[in-house]
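Dear support,

I submitted the protein below through the web form. The confirmation email said the job was done, but the results page showed an empty box. After a refresh the structure appeared. I'm attaching both so you can tell me whether what I see now is the final result or a partial one.
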Amino acid sequence: MKKLILFICLIQILNAQSINSPNNKLTFEFKLSAIGEPTYELKLGNESIILPSKLGFVIKDQPALDNNFIVTKTETSTTNETWEPVLGEVSRIKNNYNELKVYLNQKKEKDRNLILTFRLYDEGLGFRYEFPLQDNLKHFVVADELTEFNLTGDHKTWWTPGDFDTNEYFYQTSPISKIHVGNLRRAGEIFTSSPIGNNFVQTPVQFKTSKNIYINIFEAALVNYPAMCLEINNKTFSTKSSLAPDAVGNKAYLQTPAKTPWRVIFATTDAREIVASKLVLNLNEPSKIENTSWIKATKYIGIWWGMHVGTMSWNYSDVDNVSLKTTDWKSLKPNSTHGATTKRTKEYIDFAAKHGFDAVLVEGWNVGWEDWFGKWKENVFDFVTPYPDFDVEELQKYAKSKNVKMIMHHETSASVTNYERQLDTAFQFMKKFGYDAVKSGYVGKIIPRGEFHDGQWMINHYVHVAEKAAEYQIMINPHEPVRPTGLSRTYPNWLANEAARGNEFNAWSEGNPPEHETILSFTRFLGGAMDYTPGIFEIKMEFYKNGRNTQVHTTLAKQLALYVTIYSPLQMAADLPENYERYMDAFQFIKDVPVDWSDTKILEAEPGDYLTIARKDKKSANWFLGAITDENKRETLLQLNFLDADKKYTATIYKDADDADWEKNPKAYKIETKTVSSKDKINLKLAAGGGAAISFVVK
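What the results page shows now:
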């Protein structure tokens, strides 16, 4: 009898394991149910964050990997280290977690093995599945992932609809019980439901409990696997992973040994900790690029905004349905608005050189724009043939003489097979003419037909491009891709992504609401930098006499603040140079603000309401501050104790004027200068939809 009791106790010990976070605030527990189902739960103090939730998979043409497991071994360990990002918000990142590794065997079902790895940080949990090399599970197809995230109540939620082809929605705010995708707008279109169902949301998604606990669900290190949305149960508040399928409905094709991306749960009572967290980066592998000296933070301007406001065009000719292969482009009559001309590009290079910008982006330089959008064609662009009015060689020499780099633009029109065939040729062309950075685009339905932007095939494509670009020492900035999951640590040449509604939507759609940028920092930005393209000074589209009654939902001062609140080592001054010429005193902040930082302090944060961030320049002792608010005006008193204690600073404050308002008077701003130290305070009054930006320059 004693032996039987001892045996039962040993089984219970193996089947239930727990770990605490390094600061002991979070508690994680793993259990096997009576039928061998793997489950987990997470607590913050005495508060449940995730109720017992199941783990597992449906495997095509095989028994499911969801029950009949036994625990064969467990391992625990602690990691406490620091590492230095090539570019970033801080110079050093702490990676401190307690780990539990659980080895499972499914003896009744072909004797298959599965490893679960759980890492508990002070601000959250990361876990993933590992399939070790084994005879009974060599090549297999994932039909579904069964990971659950069962929440404790009807939490307030900041969400966008689940869509495997785009992230370009503005955020909704509602209780979980009210999440229902209907009549949501993206790029002027109206969707009656999410493309994958009425109760599916994109990750990362943020929740706030009635006890003011902030919870985020996301993923990290998305490689060789589809992106994850969440299926929401409005009544039970349970959620389950939902993966982007391929053209025949399969989710992933794996070969052992294999690992899934990390599933990530943030939990904290302090919203600032989520914005400051490096959990997603820490769950990614270290850099695979040994020599990173060529990877540079970049501030740029570009021939781009003019296309969005209607003063320029991407296309060279107004002739429709021209063929890339057969057209004699020199015989076509150019239109009067083509943006990417040699003359205009030289003017942009001059502006960049005069004001200290690193680079100039030019869109619409290569043939094919007459026949690219919505046609779902295989061979639209070749990435090496310029229009007749764009002299690549002359512009290379001119930019070099001005010490300005050129940024290449590759719009694939979602014909990804075409792009992959030409990658080497395109990158060789770039290197020949002095380009070391590329902005790529994936507008439209993916070719191969039936694939999604967020499916496994495309995930592998994005990584392939990053690796191929690194071979040529090229930095990349994909637009319309999957949202980032921290892979900028592994591939630091992957400077930024779009993967959300950027500033461009304000030019030709109903725009982004004033709260939009305050939500992004708690959601989309958790995975990496965004090429948001801030800095719009001419805010109302009626200025361009283009027939549009739209505007950027911001004040001018808020556009300055975004250079601090939105982290990116690739920042654009997005407006037209002539618009900056009219506001040179405000433009000075854009000229001064760095794009690479040694330290970052999140001073105030509340999703959907406000955000205040201070950052220290990596190349000097100067600090910069950005404060933004939603549609409500706000007053705040800021302690300057983040400044170096032994220094005096000249604070130049760019702020909303007293009568500023994002809708009624968006361009009203004023600039003040004062001497401050770390012992001082600054009172800021932010207009509705407004903001403030401050440079602190050591005296």
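Response: this is the final, complete result; the empty box was a page-load delay. The chain has three domains: 2-282, 295-441, 500-699.
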